[in-house]
Amino acid sequence: MVFALASDDPAGEAARGVLAADPLWLAPTHMPIEVMRTFWRKVIGRQLDAADAEIYVSALLDTEVTYHGVDAGLLAAIWRLRHHISAYDAAYVALAEAYGAALVTFDQRLAKAASPLGVSVVVPA
């Protein structure tokens, strides 16, 4: 999501293309917090102008995503994945598993961990 909102390079264009191709997006409730944290860290590190970060956060708030909180089933799936990936990343994988959805990520480590678990992975290119 960070690339889709804030990047004008080919990665950003690829991310926006993947998002535009499917009108239904699912994410764990912590996703927008992670995205905002990334923007804030870039502002503090002087890699991103604060005014641009405001624009990107506003765009994030306007993005149509269905956010899913954790329930017993999702927590059990996250726990089951604990040997492969972090709990935060496992929430994305568990949602993809539960809904038969593809996991869209630029994170190669996450993609490599999710594929053997039977989750379809899309790395925008």
What would the keywords be for this entry?
2 domains, 125 residues, mainly alpha, two-stranded parallel ribbon, single chain, 8% strand, two-stranded parallel sheet, globular
**What string gives the helices and strands in order?**
HHEHHEHHEHE
Strand order of the largest sheet: 1-2
Any idea what the radius of gyration is? 15 Å
Show unreliable segments: none
Contiguous helical run count: 7
Report the principal-axis shape.
Answer: globular
Q: Helical amount among residues, as a percent range?
A: 55-70%
Number of domains: 2
DSSP strand tally: 4
Mean pLDDT: 94
Largest sheet: 2 strands, parallel
In percent, how much strand structure appears in the residues? Answer: 5-15%
For the record, give the distance between the C-alpha atoms at the N and C termini, rounded to a whole number: 14 Å
Helices and strands: which structural class?
mainly alpha
Task: Give a summary of the structure in a few sentences.
The protein is mainly alpha-helical and 125 residues long.
Q: Would you kindly provide a written description of the structure presented here, covering whatever features stand out?
A:
With 125 residues, the chain is mainly α. The chain has 2 domains: 1-69, no CATH class; 75-119, no CATH class. It is built from 7 helices and 4 strands; from the N terminus they run H-H-E-H-H-E-H-H-E-H-E. Helix 5 (72-80) crosses helix 6. The longest helix has 14 residues, at 31-44. The model has no long low-confidence stretch (mean pLDDT 94).
Secondary structure elements and pairings:
Layout: H1 2-6, H2 10-21, E1 26-28, H3 31-44, H4 50-62, E2 66-68, H5 72-80, H6 87-99, E3 103-104, H7 108-114, E4 121-122
